[in-house]
Amino acid sequence: MASKNPVEFWFDFSSPYAYLASAQIAEIADEYGRSVMWRPFLLGAVFKETGARPNVDNPFKKEYMGRDVARFARLYEMDFIWPEPFPVSTLVPARIFYWVERYQPEKVGDFVGSVFDSFFSRGRNIAEASVVLDAAADVGLDRAVLEEALEEPVVKERLKAVNDEAIKRKIFGAPITVVDGEMFWGADRLWMVEEWLQSGGW
Amino acid sequence: MASKNPVEFWFDFSSPYAYLASAQIAEIADEYGRSVMWRPFLLGAVFKETGARPNVDNPFKKEYMGRDVARFARLYEMDFIWPEPFPVSTLVPARIFYWVERYQPEKVGDFVGSVFDSFFSRGRNIAEASVVLDAAADVGLDRAVLEEALEEPVVKERLKAVNDEAIKRKIFGAPITVVDGEMFWGADRLWMVEEWLQSGGW
Predict the structure, then answer these.
(1) Taking the CB of the first residue and of the last residue of chain B, which one, N or C, has fewer CB atoms within 10 A?
(2) Contact list, B169 vs chain A (CB under 8 Å)
(3) Residue from A170, A182, A197 to probe the interface with B (highest B Cβ count within 10 Å)
């Protein structure tokens, strides 16, 4: 039934605001009897389309963001460190995600949490396959199987299709939460997502 | 005493998110025994420094923003229409603001509200001096006096000094609310401003 659509959570594994929102969104969706449809994509692919630049290219915004993300993490009582290097390519975790979604869908939430934890709480470089495979193994996924999957054309194609969908649906940033077709951008906007879920819109 | 610093509200009169936040910020400040220090500036002057571009230059973001601002206004039960043209130069209202602040400081809040109302609720072009003078007259300010003030070098210098301060303090966007030195960007972040005022920070 329409009111039970999953809450879509579009993000790039390299977005600290997506990391901060990720724990909250699962709780919020659950509270309203919804599931979360995790939608990792490559923000760079969309930026190529819109001509947008990463926040960290703006020196004033970069400084604000550094302070703001840390402050957000303290408020939510989440671990947080700035990974080095940052940002990084998230091709590997995004590809693996869609393999997990297809073959072990019950593990997707754990996998997302484990990759975010590797990057933003332990500072490991999630551009590297070995780091992502470690994160997968930590939540009971089979490292050897995923290592092979990473090279399969179907896995590459799947992520490409998701990136195309992001562009088509004008998912211009991350995180973007979609509730019954309505988009909400940012980690600071989850209160509005909750209002929308509760009221059915206004 | 330190805990009674005014809440600084940095904005450009052409920012719809600043309009949406403006009513809320006055209420929030009041609730915690603070005054609002309105700080209109020219966002374009800061963008020149950082190389940032207006949101409306990004076609995907522009479309989201159109929907989001209207949705925000409905939630806050505020009038809202997209002015045409948009965005516009806000040199005139910003200059007049600083004259009002100097000579009739008790009127600044009313003046800000009246200019925002002209632009975002009645769609009048606030780049035009006659429109801003009408808005000023609506809240009991002297039209003829302000018309003369607009050409005074001291008024021009004052706005220039404020723009320089914005750049120095890295006020990269609008609205930006500053509480005891701590910056919060956006209209969707006022809940965090409230938490900060209430707790004194974390």
Answers:
(1) N
(2) none
(3) A170
Query: Which positions in chain B touch A64 (Cβ < 8 Å)?
Result: 170, 172, 183, 185
Is the sign of the CA dihedral A176, A6, A111, A90 positive or negative?
A: negative
Q: Where are the beta strands (DSSP E) in B25-135?
A: 36-40
Does residue B85 have a cis bond before it (omega within 30 degrees)? yes
Mark yes or no for CB contact A61/B68 under 8 Å: no
Greatest alpha-carbon span in chain B: 49
pLDDT tens, residue order, chain B (202 aa): 445 899 999 999 999 999 999 999 999 999 999 999 999 999 999 999 998 988 888 999 999 999 999 999 999 999 999 999 999 999 999 999 999 999 999 999 999 999 999 999 999 999 999 999 999 999 999 999 999 999 999 999 999 999 999 999 999 999 999 999 999 999 999 999 999 999 999 9
User: Which CA distances in Å does A134 have to A67, A93, B59, B128, B187?
Assistant: 30, 11, 39, 62, 40
Q: CA of B131 to nearest chain A CA: how many angstroms apart?
A: 33
Geometric angle at alpha carbon B173, from B167 and B174, rounded to 5°? 115
Q: Which chain B residues are closer than 8 Å to A67 by Cβ?
A: 183
Residue of A nearest to B195 (CA): A75
Count H helices and E strands in chain B, helices first: 9, 4
